């Protein structure tokens, strides 16, 4: 699967085409490449209205792009005046994503062409780690999270990841019409795997006696499934999950000759590895049957992580089990734990009286 951005002349926009090709070669996920393509389409539409070459844009002019994005789409045409107080068409979280896409685009071209300024691209990104600190870093405005080092600040309150209750997970499992689907839902809920990691599993990755699921990065999966990053991991799982796998193998998989765990069994091509499109169809059916509108495979991953943290599992261990590059990522993602969770820790440490907490 590939993505491109087409200009007004009907031809691919070469600078964007080069950047997206780089992302693909670098192993970025198709969803990431697609998102960057959509964001850069907006950026080059804005440039086209002003007849500017992207190489000529200065920081002050780039800031105008985000004001343009806030306009309703019909009001983005040249010569349209927007009345004060008009609601913004996009939220700050969307603007942050588009800023990151444009910044990455400029970083890429600045490395290849000395005539291209990185603009805010050289300043945007995660907090520097180690001893190296960018020059003049002390002059930059400080803010929360990855916005710390951007000269164009767009502040958005972090949204807590959605999770499912135990009862909702049970509803989803009971709503599955096939053992394969029950095993997939159970796997995502009890291992925290990403969907791409689950779809890339081979039978040899399930170590039944040890009670473990092995996640390995592999190139060239037939269904396009991929493991984020280059490092594999092993996730311990409970016996109930392996029982679901055994039921799936006995009742439905049978003597089918395929290395992949999750395959098409009830539609064509039979025996082919399941794809994201297959799972998306399953998600729509389960939403309709259960009424759980916010259910997605990734919500099950958030549910798994939240369950571990509330059980007191150290955040470093949770980060390893999730395959996060750093515990800081885990801490920032799951900062939504409620006051009751914090209170429970203080009570267990003897720092808060349990009776007082009940009042």
Overview of the molecule:
The protein is an all-alpha fold and 359 residues long. 47% of the residues lie in helices and 3% in strands. The protein has a three-stranded antiparallel beta sheet, with no helix packed on it. Strand 1 (206-207) and strand 2 (212-215) form a beta hairpin. Helix 5 (166-175) runs antiparallel to helix 6. The longest helix has 21 residues, at 30-50. The protein is globular, with a radius of gyration of 24 Å. The N and C termini lie far apart (58 Å).
Task: Explain briefly what this protein structure is.
Helix content is 47%, strand content 3%.
Keywords:
359 residues, mainly alpha, DNA polymerase, domain 1, hpI Integrase, Chain A, three-stranded antiparallel β-sheet, 14 helices, 3 strands, 47% helix, globular
CATH architecture of the largest domain: Orthogonal Bundle
Radius of gyration in whole Å, from Cα?
A: 24 Å
Terminal CA distance reads 58 Å
How many structurally independent domains? 2
Shape: globular
The whole-number mean of residue pLDDT values reads 85
Q: How many individual β-strands?
A: 3
Helix content: 40-55%
What secondary-structure arrangement, pairings included, does this model have?
Layout lengths: L13 H12 L4 H21 L8 H11 L22 H21 L53 H10 L3 H13 L3 H5 L6 E2 L4 E4 L17 E4 L2 H15 L22 H15 L6 H14 L4 H8 L4 H7 L5 H10 L5 H5 L1
Antiparallel strand pairs: 1-2, 2-3
Helix pairs in contact: 1-2, 2-4, 5-6, 5-9, 6-8, 6-10, 11-12
């Amino acid at each position: 699967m590939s993505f491109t951005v087409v200009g007004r002349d009907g031809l691919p926009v070469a600078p964007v085409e080069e950047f997206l090709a780089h992302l693909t070669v670098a192993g970025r996920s198709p969803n990431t490449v697609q998102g960057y393509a959509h964001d850069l389409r907006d950026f080059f539409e804005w440039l086209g209205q002003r007849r500017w070459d992207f190489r000529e844009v200065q920081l002050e002019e780039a800031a105008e792009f985000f004001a343009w994005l806030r306009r309703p789409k019909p009001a983005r045409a040249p010569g349209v005046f927007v009345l004060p107080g008009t609601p913004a068409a996009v939220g700050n979280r969307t603007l942050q994503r588009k800023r990151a896409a444009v910044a990455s685009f400029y970083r890429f071209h600045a490395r290849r062409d000395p005539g291209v300024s990185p603009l805010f691209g050289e300043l945007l990104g995660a907090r520097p780690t180690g001893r190296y600190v960018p020059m003049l870093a002390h002059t930059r405005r400080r803010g929360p999270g990855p916005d710390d080092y951007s000269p164009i600040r767009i502040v958005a309150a972090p949204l807590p990841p959605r999770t499912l209750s135990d009862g909702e997970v049970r509803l989803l499992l009971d709503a599955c019409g096939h053992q394969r689907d029950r095993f997939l839902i159970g796997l995502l809920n009890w291992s925290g795997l990403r969907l791409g990691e689950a779809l890339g599993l081979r039978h040899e990755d399930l170590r039944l006696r040890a009670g473990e699921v092995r996640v390995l990065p592999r190139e060239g999966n037939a269904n396009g499934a991929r493991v984020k990053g280059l490092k594999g991991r092993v996730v311990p799982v409970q016996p109930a999950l392996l029982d679901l796998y055994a039921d799936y193998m006995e009742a439905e998989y049978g003597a089918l000759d395929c290395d992949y765990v999750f395959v098409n069994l009830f539609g064509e091509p039979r025996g082919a590895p399941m794809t994201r499109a297959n799972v998306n169809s399953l998600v729509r059916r389960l939403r309709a049957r259960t009424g759980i509108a916010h259910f997605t495979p990734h919500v099950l991953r958030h549910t798994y992580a939240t369950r571990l943290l509330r059980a007191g599992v150290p955040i470093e261990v949770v980060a390893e089990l999730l395959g996060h590059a750093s515990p800081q990522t885990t801490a920032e993602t799951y900062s939504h734990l409620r006051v009751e969770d914090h209170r429970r820790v203080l009570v267990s440490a003897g720092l808060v009286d349990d009776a007082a907490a009940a009042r």
